[in-house]
Amino acid sequence: MAPLVLIRPGPPAARWIAVSCKYNLRASRRALHTARGVATNITAQEPVADFLKSPGAIPIPPPVERNEPQGRKEAIKQAKPFSDFLTDTFNRQHDYLRISITERCNLRCLYCMPEEGVPLSPPSHLLTSPEIFYIASLFVSQGVTKIRLTGGEPTVRRDIVPLMQSIGTLRSKGLRELTLTTNGVSLHRKLDSMVEAGLTGVNLSLDTLDPFQFQIMTRRNGFDAVMKSIDRILEMKRLGADLKLKINCVVMRGLNERDIIPFIEMGREKDVEVRFIEYMPFDGNKWSQGKMLPYEAMLNIIRAKYPDLRKVKGHKNDTSKTYEVPGFVGKLGFITSMTHNFCGTCNRLRITSDGNLKVCLFGNAEVSLRDLLRKDNNGQPMDQEAFDAIKQIEIDRRRGALGDDTVLGWGERERELLEVIGAAVKRKKEKHAGMGELENMKNRPMILIGG
């Protein structure tokens, strides 16, 4: 038997977790399949609801048994064609969904939010936990295999862990990855529970390794807390947790390009991928082409220090051009939305925290799923009772009481949602506007889109 190690979650947690030296993630994920209760309520700050606690709640499916190679071949042979609802007119298949779960944030980053902040939506306009779970279920039923929770800052949402637990149950329906984009300030306090809930990757936004510069760029304190979160992720990875870490750094000319080399040095001995992002225009962030440092300029800075820098072959849907320095553990990448777009292989869709579907980050066209979702609830947020009613329809359908052939059993409403989603995806353009057009295009502030 492997020796046991006591790992203490970061304060203020008051419990100890016993795990093997290998940090068997599969064992921790089995926590999803317990009868653990989830207590949440609709509050004035964030609209949440309890949909796992009640005795009649949606049952958590048992763990999926891994097939032998022959079983996998058979599954591939019998696999259904990818959903037409998520396929656009350029044959791009959208299997990656980003869901913003809050508009709130505990930082005020220069490129993301105006200094004065942004007007927040009334709580009733934001998606509740049951609504988020239903939308996630609907997209997974159509072929989405990766879900990323964003914000605002998603860790400030009080029920983020139970929400992740519920979404994690969709693994039995085809979900493969459940990831998070965060600024890391509060992450270290919730990370252990998130990994137990099925978290597979963290994209952590950090634009400088200088505490003083951090305060300038975020207009807040918090550098030490962010570094604590990074250290905790790396510690869990050393213990065997299958948890990817990527650090996203928005580079702004004259402000933080001197941090490029220190970020690369971070990867000398640490298993982290640092991705340098070209500064992008959004409402309120005072973008100008003079402030944007193109990735070729970043490459020149790096090659002056590391002339043996080399390209790494990536996946066709990668947003990042990946490189490595020979001998370094970590990698680096460039997200080149402004100078070299990757629209041709885009597989991403976005849901804003107020329930709008955006098919392109830089597009200003949006369509509301929230209003259609609430149509049978007099336009009101879907609370526990309303969600249970939907669940009962699904139970009745499975018992043969209904002849409805929709995937989730919500009848006409489900079909309408899919038709609206499909129509929006079909309207997606071949590529987003060019740099000059984007500068003047009306769009939401980044904080209200979801990172």
Automatic annotation (TrEMBL):
Keywords: 4Fe-4S, GTP-binding, Iron, Iron-sulfur, Lyase, Metal-binding, Mitochondrion, Molybdenum cofactor biosynthesis, Nucleotide-binding, S-adenosyl-L-methionine. Pfam families: Mob_synth_C, Radical_SAM. Residues 89-316 form the Radical SAM core domain. Its cofactor is [4Fe-4S] cluster. Its EC number is 4.1.99.22. Pathway: Cofactor biosynthesis; molybdopterin biosynthesis. GO terms for molecular function: 4 iron, 4 sulfur cluster binding; cyclic pyranopterin monophosphate synthase activity; GTP 3',8'-cyclase activity; GTP binding; metal ion binding. It catalyses: GTP + AH2 + S-adenosyl-L-methionine = (8S)-3',8-cyclo-7,8-dihydroguanosine 5'-triphosphate + 5'-deoxyadenosine + L-methionine + A + H(+). This is GTP 3',8-cyclase. GO terms for biological process: Mo-molybdopterin cofactor biosynthetic process. CDD domains: Radical_SAM (cd01335), Twitch_MoaA (cd21117). Signal peptide: none annotated.
